[in-house]
Amino acid sequence: MDSFLIKGGTPLRGEVEISGSKNAALPIMAAALLTPDPCVIRRVPNLSDVHFMGSILESAGATVKFQGDTVTIEAARVKGVGDYELIRKMRGSICILGPLLGRTGKALVSLPGGCVIGARPIDLHLKGLRALGAKISIENGYVNATARKLRGAELFLGGRAGPTVLGTANVLMAAVLAEGVTIIESAACEPEVIDLANFLNAMGARVSGAGSPTLTVTGVRSLHGAEHEVIPDRIEAATFAVAAAATDGDVTIRGARADHLHAVLDKLREAGVSVERSGSALKVSRPGRLKAIDITTLPYAGFPTDVQAQMMVLMALTPGISIITERIFESRFMHVSELARLGADIAIEGPSAIIKGGKALSGAPVMASDLRASAALVIAGLAARGTTEVSRVYHIDRGYENIDGKLRQLGAKIVRQEAS
Ligand code: EPZ
Fold it and tell me: Which of 19, 23, 330, 398 maximizes ligand 1 atoms within 8 Å of its Cβ, making it the mutation to test the pocket?
């Protein structure tokens, strides 16, 4: 397993280009199952999760061709079955359930299973699909869904932690070919859901309200192929912004959508970080002392849970007491124990982490656990004195395209050590 060797203490300086969004690309690739025509999706990030999704779509009968950052998917014939082993390994693949059901009337996919950040249930996905008339049973680790004809319905998709992003995507992708009108209340408002709705409409679907808590879908008889460019990855952009601030650097982030980052930019500014917009670029620097702040993660447009770990590193470097409360996932503090190995002083009280910041971090060997926690450990290594080794970086390769190359371009002393 590869690891990163990071020599800390160098401020990041220069320009970085943001890749397409992983969390938009995955459901959009799955949506290509809804038509027999070829779909061309551009600005797809070169990530293991994306290539994994390609293999899953092939296991369902589609042909998938990657050329640079463009993928062409042709699902001329589709089996209603997704490869058990593949789906079990990547939670995001659950979003083939809706399109398989919508296209073929049946879907046999493995339960995605939990991961280190939480149980990751799919009860809301199944509630929405059942509301559209699907018969669903759970047998031997599989979700077995069938529907002679999906019918539009009014349904509420909110759960104990608010809306579900992939649950909204699944129900949306099943509804576009259902008979009649579907109204999804408490739909997720994330930009990635808007991007999926835009792609579906380009395929001939009739979806309105994307980005609001109420989605209205008028079913159509069939969909045709379409071309689409995926939105930039707001979480990657936020990660580089935090890295710039944490290393007292001066970084221009190109290709991001500032309108997808309001909550993150607001908190960075509150913490004393300067974020200036120049055209479509964001210039991040740290003019003065950082200030301790409080953060609570919320559904979009609130502060994103996927930037929580990264911000915790910045707060560990900030004199004073900061409190970060995680309201989306039940155990998304895996990075705390690893940050403690670098000298961070963080106590967990229920859903909150209390960060006594201000002491310099010192490099040490640490282990990545989930995608965003791993990114946080890299940021910590960049800011720490001495050398940090981050092991199991396959977690990072799932969601960040060439992160070590992009960081080196910004002056970071980071090398990838191939596993012997
Ligand atoms: C998406 O996961 C993202 N993944 C996650 O990003 C992100 O953290 C999450 O949304 C929240 O923004 C992709 O888009 C591939 P949810 P998703 O369903 O859709 C509960 C990353 O690092 N819930 O919105 O799986 C759930 O347990 C990843 O890129 C139910 O209770 O998340 C959680 O507490 C990590 N029942 C909350 O809702 C359900 O049926 C939000 O989960 C579904 C979800």
Answer: 23
Task: Give backbone dihedrals phi and psi of 214, rounded to 5 degrees, phi first.
Answer: -120, 110
Nearest CA among 119, 50, 66 for reference residue 399 = 50
Alpha helix ranges (H) inside 19-59: 22-31, 48-59
Pairing of the two strands 320-325 and 63-67? unpaired
Q: Residue 63's beta-bridge partner residues?
A: 74
* 115 given a catalytic annotation: yes
* pTM of the complete model: 0.98
Q: In terms of Cα–Cα distance, which of 185, 163, 182, 162 is closest to 173?
A: 182
pLDDT-derived band at 420 (thresholds 50, 70, 90) equals low
**pLDDT single digits (tens) 192-202:** 999 999 999 99
Q: Is the CB of 381 under 6 A from ligand 1?
A: no
Residue 127 in contact with ligand 1 by CB distance below 6 A: no
pLDDT in tens, 225-236: 999 999 999 999
**Catalytic, out of 39, 95, 115, 189:** 115
Helix axes 123-131, 165-175, angle to 10 degrees: 20
Contacts of 350 (CB under 8 A, 6+ apart): none
Determine whether the shortest distance from the Cβ of 23 to ligand 1 is under 6 A: yes
Expressed in angstroms and rounded, the spacing between residue 305 Cα and the centre of ligand 1 is 9
3-class SS letters over 5-23: EEECCCCCEEEEECCECHH
Query: Which of 223, 281, 271 has its CA nearest to residue 246?
Result: 271
Q: Which domains does the chain have, with CATH numbers?
A: 3-18+232-417 (3.65.10.10), 22-229 (3.65.10.10)
User: Does residue 116 register a pLDDT over 80?
Assistant: no
Tell me which DSSP letter residue 412 carries: -
Rounded to an integer, what distance in angstroms lies between the CA atom of residue 301 and that of residue 227?
27
Residues 57-103: tens digit of each pLDDT: 999 999 999 999 999 999 999 987 877 788 888 888 899 999 999 99
